[in-house]
C-alpha cells in the first residue's frame, strides 16, 4: 500500500483528495494536517510514503515544513509533492531545491493525480512530461550561475550523459530510446547517478544538473 499524508488548510480540498485516493486498492490516506506544524508531527508519527503538501498554510507554511522533512535523515524515505493553485507558483522552485519531489496543481485531473502519486513513490518520472518540462524551463530561467562541476567527478561519462537527459526532462523510456538501451538499463544508470550524488530523487537530480552546469537554459528539447 502507498501511504499518503494530506496537508492542506482547506477541509474541502483534503476531503476531495482523500475520497479519490482511498478509493484506490493500492493507496491509503493515513493522516491529514491543516497546517505545516501538524504536517511535521504527522509525518514523524506515521512515516508516510508521500506527503501532498499545500504551499500556503498557517502556523508553519508548506515550504518550511518540506525543508524540515527533507533535512531530517530519519525521514529520508518520505517523498513530498507540493500542492499549488498556480502551475508556476514562485515558491515551487525553492521547494524543489529544498528536496520536494515535484508539484501538482490542485485542479489536476484525478487520473493525473493518481499517476503522479504512484510515479513519485516508485522513483520514476518526476510528474507528467509536460509539467516536468515547464518546471525545468522555469527553474532554468530562475537558477543562479552554475556552481563548480566538481560534484560530477564521481560519475562515469555515461552517467553524466544520462544525468543531462534527466535534466532536460526525459523519462526513463525516452532516455532508453535516445541511448538505444533497455528501459531497465536507463533506470539503473539513473539510480546509480542518484546514489553517487546523494540525490533523494529525480527532482534533485534535475537541480544538480543545472547547478553543476551540466545542463544550461536553452537546452530544452
Automatic annotation (TrEMBL):
Sites of 4-aspartylphosphate modification: 54
Source superkingdom: Bacteria
UniProt xrefs under CDD domains: LuxR_C_like (cd06170), REC_NarL-like (cd17535)
Transmembrane segments: none
Keyword terms, alphabetized: DNA-binding, Phosphoprotein, Transcription, Transcription regulation
Matching InterPro entries: CheY-like_superfamily, NreC/VraR/RcsB-like_REC, Sig_transdc_resp-reg_C-effctor, Sig_transdc_resp-reg_receiver, Tscrpt_reg_LuxR_C, WalR-like
Biological process terms in GO annotation: phosphorelay signal transduction system; regulation of DNA-templated transcription
Domain Response regulatory: 3-121
Domain (HTH luxR-type) ranges: 148-213
GO molecular function, one term: DNA binding
PROSITE patterns: HTH_LUXR_2 (PS50043), RESPONSE_REGULATORY (PS50110)
Protein name per its UniProtKB record: DNA-binding response regulator
Amino acid at each position: 500500500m502507498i501511504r499518503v499524508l494530506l496537508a492542506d488548510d482547506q477541509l474541502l480540498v483534503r476531503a476531495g483528495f482523500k475520497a479519490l485516493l482511498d478509493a484506490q486498492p493500492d493507496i491509503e490516506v493515513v493522516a491529514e494536517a491543516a497546517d505545516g506544524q501538524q504536517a511535521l508531527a504527522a509525518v514523524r508519527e506515521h512515516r508516510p510514503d508521500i506527503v501532498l503538501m499545500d504551499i500556503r498554510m498557517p502556523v508553519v507554511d508548506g515550504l518550511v515544513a518540506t525543508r524540515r522533512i527533507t533535512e531530517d535523515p530519519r525521514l529520508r524515505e518520505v517523498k513530498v509533492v507540493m500542492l499549488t493553485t498556480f502551475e508556476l507558483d514562485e515558491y515551487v522552485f525553492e521547494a524543489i531545491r529544498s528536496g520536494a519531489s515535484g508539484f501538482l496543481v490542485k485542479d489536476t485531473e484525478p487520473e493525473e493525480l493518481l499517476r503522479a502519486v504512484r510515479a513519485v513513490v516508485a522513483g520514476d518520472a518526476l510528474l507528467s512530461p509536460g509539467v516536468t518540462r515547464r518546471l525545468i524551463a522555469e527553474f532554468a530561467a530562475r537558477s543562479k550561475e552554475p556552481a563548480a562541476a566538481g560534484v560530477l567527478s564521481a560519475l562515469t561519462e555515461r552517467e553524466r550523459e544520462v544525468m543531462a537527459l534527466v535534466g532536460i526532462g526525459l523519462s526513463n523510456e525516452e532516455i532508453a530510446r535516445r541511448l538505444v538501451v533497455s528501459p531497465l538499463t536507463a533506470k539503473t544508470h539513473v539510480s546509480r547517478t542518484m546514489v553517487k550524488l546523494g540525490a533523494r530523487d529525480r527532482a534533485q537530480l534535475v537541480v544538480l544538473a543545472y547547478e553543476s552546469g551540466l545542463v544550461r537554459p536553452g537546452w530544452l528539447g
